[in-house]
Amino acid sequence: MSEVSVRYMIDDVPAAIEFYTTLLGFTLEHDASPAFAAVSRNGVRLLLSGEGSSGKRPLPDGRRQEPGGWNRVHLEVTDLAAEVARLRAAGVSFRTNEIVTGPGGAQVILEDPSGNPVELFQSRR
């Protein structure tokens, strides 16, 4: 199989399903709540691993796998300002309060209900 997936550690799998499917346009592929779910969007498959899933078990040295960090899913949008306004109105938390622009386009980083970052990006193309 040549499919690539991204795994996120999740505190509340049903809340994550709602967030990704309702607010970010993902489709639910598999729901094994409260332990696990898989959602997809345009070839991106996101594995949502909650308590009880094999992907979130403690590591052999005892460290717990937790949400957060700065690695993130990068989603391209056609109208970043409109998406930011829509998501703010829905009560979504943002890590970067302002849209940041650079040579390739503009971006903003928001958080899913467990605190995992998601980047919305609008290309200059």
Task: Describe, in plain words, how this protein is organized in 3D.
There is one protein chain. By secondary structure, the protein is α+β, with helices and mostly antiparallel strands. It contains two helices and nine strands. The strands form two sheets. Strands 5, 6, 7, 8 and 9 form a five-stranded mixed sheet that branches. A four-stranded mixed sheet has the order 1-4-3-2, with helices on one face. Strand 3 and strand 4 form a beta hairpin. The longest helix has 11 residues, at 13-23. The protein is globular, with a radius of gyration of 15 Å. The model has no long low-confidence stretch (mean pLDDT 92).
**Counted beta strands:** 9
Helix/strand order, N-terminal first: EHEEEEHEEEE
- Main beta-sheet strand count, sense and barrel state: 5 strands, mixed
- The amount of beta strand, in percent, is 35-45%
CATH architecture: Roll
Layout of strands and helices, then pairs:
Blueprint: E1 5-9, H1 13-23, E2 27-32, E3 36-41, E4 44-49, E5 73-76, H2 80-89, E6 93-94, E7 100-101, E8 105-111, E9 117-123
Parallel strand pairs: 1-4, 5-9
Antiparallel strand pairs: 2-3, 3-4, 6-8, 7-8, 8-9
In short, what is this structure?
With 125 residues, the protein is of the alpha+beta class.
